[in-house]
């Protein structure tokens, strides 16, 4: 297949159809997998608006209490103390409303910027799709760098490409210190985060808070502070008995086996790899709460592309050098992915949009561009026997066109 053909070439499905399209159609297809781009700020805006409602309702409650205490028969000192307490509550609610307003404005601006970014995909002109695709690639790279922990590089790339409002650096920046603390065997920042998001984590049935408390308990056992460990278990682990009894019993048994045991599965509880597992679990729950994809978009695109190209012939000794899967690096990336299913191949002309077959065979220009015989006759009939390529502008005689055969 010639790489000079305008648009995209797709293979897939039982028909294994090859579609020769145009950039505008390609961008419309790309929009279908851009759901997280809009969903992340929209869901954040929805949550912020909901939090604002709760705060406003609380303000009404405080105002009602102010009016109630104004008509009571309390002494002047009691009324002053009560009023001071209510005023302090109102000041706290005011600060919370100001913070929510700032977050709400930022989320609304992100929604607007991303809607405008997606609308640019349908802009008229051949250069617009290319420029839009370049920004999209930079955005995907920033997302991958953020997930890989390369936040400095991600921030630099987003600033240079002008993508600050199209990427979610604010989510990862806030989580960076928590991940670093977990890798340094410190659960406190993560526990504070779970306390702030307790309702949302309970809604998605997250085990993160339970796992963090288990790890804190195990560390007390590792230090042989048995009394503190028992006290901690009664306070923080006992409430989880109804939902995680088996894991809780195994953790409590560590009191008898202690840190240097070689007995499975209790020895696993004391392995330092548990901290890395906690950091991974935190990231997964962070992505779930913020409507981010479990894997980076770059990994999703790579897997989809490699799966579409992966065939048994790619692993033979005489595989084509143009096939990316003849390289060991791509084979490693494609490991575990299914093979593409290609029963038949079809070519669709970029001019007539008709299938090219034995009745309408594909014709190749000297420069490698490929069109259907029907399109070639139409164009040659309008140009005195000369074929003018609508993409590159190259001109050739009708007799210089050569038929291509599909294997």
List the helices and strands and how they pair.
Blueprint: H1 23-31, H2 35-70, H3 76-119, H4 127-147, H5 151-161, H6 169-183, H7 188-196, H8 198-203, H9 208-222, H10 226-237, H11 245-252, H12 254-257, H13 266-269, H14 273-289, H15 297-309, H16 328-333, E1 347-348, E2 355-356, E3 362-364, E4 370-372, H17 373-382, E5 386-388, E6 395-397, E7 402-403
Antiparallel strand pairs: 1-2, 3-4, 3-7, 5-6
Helix pairs in contact: 2-3, 4-5, 6-7, 6-14, 7-9, 9-10, 9-14
- Tell me the number of strands: 7
Largest sheet: 3 strands, antiparallel
What is the helix/strand order?
Answer: HHHHHHHHHHHHHHHHEEEEHEEE
Strand order of the largest sheet: 4-3-7
Tally of alpha and pi helices: 17
3D shape = flat
What proportion strand?
Answer: under 5%
Structural class, by secondary structure, is: mainly alpha
Work out the radius of gyration.
31 Å
End-to-end Cα distance, whole Å, is: 11 Å
How much helical structure, as a percent, in the residues? 55-70%
| Low-pLDDT segments | 1-29
Average pLDDT taken over every residue: 82
Number of domains: 5
């Amino acid at each position: 297949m010639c790489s000079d053909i305008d648009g995209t070439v797709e293979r897939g499905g039982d028909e294994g159809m090859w579609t020769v399209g145009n950039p505008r159609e390609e961008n419309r297809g790309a929009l279908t997998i851009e759901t997280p781009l809009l969903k992340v700020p929209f869901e954040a805006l929805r949550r912020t608006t909901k939090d604002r409602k709760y705060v406003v309702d609380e303000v009404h409650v405080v105002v009602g209490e102010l009016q109630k205490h104004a008509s009571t028969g309390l002494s002047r000192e009691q009324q002053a103390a009560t009023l001071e307490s209510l005023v302090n509550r109102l000041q706290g609610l005011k600060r919370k409303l100001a913070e929510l307003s700032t977050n709400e404005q930022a989320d609304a601006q992100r929604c607007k910027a991303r809607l405008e970014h997606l609308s640019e995909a349908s802009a008229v002109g051949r250069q617009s799709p290319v420029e839009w695709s370049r920004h999209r690639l930079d955005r995907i790279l920033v997302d991958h760098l953020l997930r890989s922990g390369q936040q400095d590089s991600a921030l630099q790339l987003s600033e240079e490409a002008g993508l600050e409002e199209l990427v979610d650096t604010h989510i990862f920046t806030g989580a960076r210190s928590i991940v670093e603390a977990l890798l340094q065997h410190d659960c406190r920042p993560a526990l504070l985060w779970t306390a702030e998001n307790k309702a949302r984590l309970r809604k998605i049935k997250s085990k993160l808070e339970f796992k963090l408390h288990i790890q804190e308990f195990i560390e007390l056992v590792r230090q042989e502070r048995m009394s503190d460990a028992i006290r901690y278990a009664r306070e923080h682990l006992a409430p989880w008995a109804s939902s995680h009894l088996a894991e809780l019993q195994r953790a409590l048994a560590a009191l008898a086996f202690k840190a240097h045991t070689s007995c499975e599965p209790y020895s696993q509880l004391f392995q330092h790899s548990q901290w890395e597992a906690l950091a991974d679990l935190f990231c997964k729950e962070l992505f779930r709460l913020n409507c981010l994809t479990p894997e980076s978009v770059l990994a999703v695109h790579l897997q989809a592309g490699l799966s579409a190209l992966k065939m048994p012939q790619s692993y033979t000794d005489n595989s084509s050098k143009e096939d990316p899967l003849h390289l060991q690096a791509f084979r490693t990336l494609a490991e575990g992915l299914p093979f593409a299913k290609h029963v038949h191949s079809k070519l669709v002309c970029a001019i007539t949009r008709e299938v090219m077959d034995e009745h309408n065979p594909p014709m190749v220009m000297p420069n490698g561009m490929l069109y259907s015989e029907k399109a070639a006759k139409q164009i040659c009939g309008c140009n005195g026997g000369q074929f003018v390529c609508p993409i590159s502008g190259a001109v050739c005689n009708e007799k210089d066109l050569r038929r291509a055969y599909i294997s």
